[in-house]
Design a protein that fits this description.
Bound molecules: adenosine-5'-triphosphate, magnesium ion
Strand content: 15-25%
Largest sheet: 7 strands, mixed
Number of helices: 5
CATH class: Alpha Beta
CATH superfamily: NagB/RpiA/CoA transferase-like
Number of strands: 11
Order of helices and strands: HHHEHEEEEEEEHEEE
Strand order of the largest sheet: 3-2-1-6-9-10-11
Helix content: 25-40%
Distance between the termini: 27 Å
């Protein structure tokens, strides 16, 4: 099946997922994440401030801060590129043209090579680690020359079978579902 069709199907499944069921799954996924060695050994963790439809990252952020980890969040740039900026309680946030909450333009970006772990968001994921995002190619571009760890947390509604991947699609190294952890063999 084509990525676009799967993306639309999963988005409508997520729209009909009730918030209690979503929260229950999120709790399991986050508990699993913080038990992994990838989480434990990471000092600088990249993640997004989630939209309502996406996995809620608030608890991950709180947990990271409580463990003295550094959280960095994305900021979109021109040419569908992005960088990541340190996120603290007092970080000035602006709303981007897409309506996303992003760190202010004047803040200095973190070096890509300093990021230990990226929690890669997405709409749909298959067991091979390949993902379907919102279609901007932002993560595919960023991950193309990133050498650290990548993980995605997958709600049941987001698990899909194999799909046609493109040459520029980059899979994640680690997938966490409510049932299991899937590690890509390196
Ligand atoms: N490394 C790259 N260099 C240039 N263009 C790219 C690269 N990666 C992806 N793209 C472009 O991005 C567009 C969107 O790709 P795709 O549909 O796979 O997005 P996505 O994976 O859903 O988005 P995201 O990565 O933001 O989650 C494609 O049309 C592709 O041309
Ligand atoms: Mg892609």
């Amino acid at each position: 099946m084509k990525k676009k069709k799967i993306r639309n199907q999963v988005i409508s499944l997520l729209k009909s997922l009730n918030s209690e069921q979503k929260a229950k799954q999120e709790e399991i996924l986050i508990k699993t994440l913080i038990g992994t060695s990838e989480w434990k050994r990471s000092k600088i963790i990249a993640l997004t401030l989630a939209q309502k439809l996406e996995l809620n990252t608030d608890k991950i952020i709180e947990k990271a801060w409580s463990e003295d980890k550094i959280v960095v969040i994305p900021r979109t740039k021109k040419d569908r590129k992005m960088d990541f900026v340190v996120y603290k309680k007092d970080t000035p946030i602006e709303v981007s043209s897409f309506g996303l909450k992003e760190p202010a333009r004047h803040l200095i970006a973190t070096l890509k090579s300093d990021i230990d772990l990226i929690i890669v968001p997405g709409v749909a994921f298959c067991e091979t680690g390949f993902r379907i995002g919102f279609g901007g190619g932002y993560y595919d571009r960023f991950l193309a020359n990133y050498e650290g760890e990548t993980v995605s947390l997958v709600l049941n509604e987001q698990q899909v079978g194999l799909f046609e991947v493109d040459s520029f699609d980059i899979p994640v190294n680690l997938l966490i579902t409510t049932e299991k952890i899937i590690r890509k063999i390196k």
